[in-house]
Amino acid sequence: MVNASQEKPEAMRKPRTVFSVYAREVLRHPKLFSVIVVCDLIMQATYLVAPLYLRSFFNTIAKNVPSDAVAQALVYILVVIVIIWIIDWLAHRGQYVATMYLETRVMSDLYRSTFDYLLGHSYNFFISQFAGSLTHKVSKFVRSFEIIIDSVVNNMFPALVFITGAIVVLFIRNHTLGIILAVWSVLYLMFQIYVSRVRRPSRIARAEADSRVTGNLADAISNQSTIVLFSGGRHEASRFGRTVAEWVKAFLRTWWVDAWIWLGLGFFMIVIQTTLLYVGIQLWHEGLFSVGDFILIQAYLLTAFERLEQVNRQLRRANDAYSDAGEMVEILETLHEVHDVPGARPLLVRDGALTFENVDFYFYEEQGVFENFNLAVRGREKVAFVGPSGAGKTTLTKLILRLFDVKAGAITVDGQNIAAVTQESLRDAIGFVPQEPILFHRTLMENIRYGRRDASDADVVEAAKRAHCHEFISKLPHGYDTYVGERGVKLSGGERQRVAIARAILKNAPLLILDEATSSLDSTSELLIQKALADLMSGKTVIVIAHRLSTIMKMDRIIVLDGGTLVEEGTHQELLTKKGLYAELWSHQAGGFIQDE
After folding, report:
1. Cα separation of 166 and 299, whole Å?
2. Which of 11, 22, 123, 334 has its CA 20 to 30 A from that of 43?
3. In a domain, 435, yes or no
4. Residue 192: φ, ψ to 5°
5. For residue range 344-353, what is the model confidence (pLDDT) as tens digits?
6. CB contact set of 122 (below 8 Å; sequence gap of 6+)
């Protein structure tokens, strides 16, 4: 079994680059990618060839007096130029369509794969993250692909092809011109590589500041009621203002870096244009250069400048996108803390016997929760865990559900180590009603049906009746089609709990965990649901956690925990007779709860 504490060596945990992740997805669509590249090459060829014909066009005008033959030659050149422009137009359209399909398909794949991997992270991962920040990172990761593919494939690659072609053409025309442009291009490229490295830290800091703003905003919105009840509006505004101020500093830092970069790029462009035109003048003076050659140089330089300016702008956007995507790639490259081992098999439940064998568990190494913990629950036995707060009751249920992995020892169901079976089959075998049920912002019908997603409407209604949900649902204007709000906030705590119980009734799994399942119910509602829970527990292995001890009096066995240690066990009457911790807890609660009928 691989425990959460067994970390992968640091050298092996380095995340792949953003480009490698995106490249892998792009290469799953080789035909579309090939069309884009071919269309790019055709377009760059037209940009290189058209100025050559413009050179001939203007040389023909400069060297000849007007005549029918000269006019006919000019028309012929014009026709060729128009054909080149049409080819370029067709290539543009082909590239656009191919890019459109490639980007939408890859972005769809990225959403799905990211969603799947993100949900595979552990309970501990999610309680350590802002939900709003995570969703923002997913969105930025997918959007960044569009920006990077546009920058690299539709701007940087075409610019590189064009400049390489321009160097070749000028070198053929005159070696000196070709060498000058080649040397300048190499220097320009080195400068771009250097400034991209200079840019990166500020871009990463900006992306992190952006995520912090989103996270703080989401945290404040999700806790709006707490802010209002504790008059925390000014405090939160001040706190959020400090986060925004850090964001502003990060943005200004990136913009100042860009301003200095543009200063350098402008100087580079002045140098190359002045140099080539000066050399052209010398060649013209020697009779080696024509008016058309000046047109050719200027056409190439103007196109090159336009491309390089686009490249620099796109490089800035690509750097931003790279930094944005890097946050999500790091999450995608983080190993799942709880994962299926190779060869994991489905759990096969026969009796539902549950055993803890020498279990060690801790959240922090210096703060142990369980040490060498042992407990055997017979198949179909009803067992309650009780004890003071912090005794480890809820933690045990999370270990059974594999929301955390044990550090040592094993938990078995019918002799099968739960760490060696698939997580999905384990959780399919367990019905769970938490202390604080969280519902989807979906209809009540969908929320209850989540217990068994192939259930009919009639099955859902029957489960709701058994959980005493039907009474309040039927009074709602839209009945079972009522949306419950984010996390179920439109329902009361008791209503949410009854929906969670209905979901567990519908699931009808062989193992059942009730974690304070009636804590949000009033005494009248609790009395009604006790019968439903009794029906639900019939024939199942049941683990019940309750602070209200009156709810567990009929359990087959009561396990008393204190500080992660099993201190007492027995029936309700046996434990009262022992006059230990359970009897003490009972004496504190006696007289105010539902009595045994």
Report:
1. 10
2. 22
3. no
4. -65, -40
5. 999 999 999 9
6. 4, 336, 337, 338, 403, 404
